[in-house]
Amino acid sequence: MSTYPLVSILSTFKDSKDMLILVMASVLSQDYPNIEHIIIDSASIDGSVELLHEYEKLYSNSNCKLKWKSEPDKCIPEGANKAAALMTGDYFIFLTNPFISTSSLSTLMNHLIDESLDAVCGGVLFHKEGIVIRRWKGNKWNWRFGWMAMNETLCMKKELFVKHGPFNEDFNNAFDYDFQVQIFKDKETRCKSIKVPLVYFYAGGTSGGSTAGNIVSIKENIAILKHLKISFAVFTVLCKCIAAFLAYTFVYKKDISKELAQLPGMNL
Length: 268
Description:
Radius of gyration: 18 Å
Number of domains: 1
Distance between the termini: 34 Å
Number of strands: 8
CATH topology: Spore Coat Polysaccharide Biosynthesis Protein SpsA, Chain A
CATH superfamily: Spore Coat Polysaccharide Biosynthesis Protein SpsA, Chain A
Largest sheet: 8 strands, mixed
């Protein structure tokens, strides 16, 4: 890659100071030389705002420009849309968990630029308290059979957001699925998956971690497909659920706590 287009990294947080530290330190450690990091904080009261002020100097002395604001949001996708409205990069990625290595973003961008793609995604290691509970290998499959990219590794042209955005604020738990179905059913989208783990995902969130959360997510997934006039919506979501169940059931539960301890920001 001979040129380095600006990449916008979009992050949203609410009262998640520890994760905010990890993500900011991870972004600052990237070897890709042209980044803007846009952070929307949802009026946190846990010290996140003070932390953002502290990190402004670190960003100003790096190859990464920081943009941030802290104000109330009615839902997660509203915050994501606020971040997207501020992006000036030619490419963007939505990140709320840390990259695995300093070259994670460069790996994605090398494929995007060198192969003239619209989007590229990779693998993820889901873990809970340092124990791997799922491996998202990055294999590309058919979205009609429940496949979706891992949002934290889906780096794409800004043009896709202009064409298929904004994020639908009616779907708080699965707005990323709604957006992905639109871009992947678009036959003009050129996307590639790379079988490389790029992000450590800390298990939990609004769509997982509890039976109630999973049920809400399933209902939203079905509603999304019906809203987009996709036939056999229940079948597609059923495939998605089966794939997830198998992935969680038959995973090799490796202890990666030592690797996590080496992440930038862990000792801050």
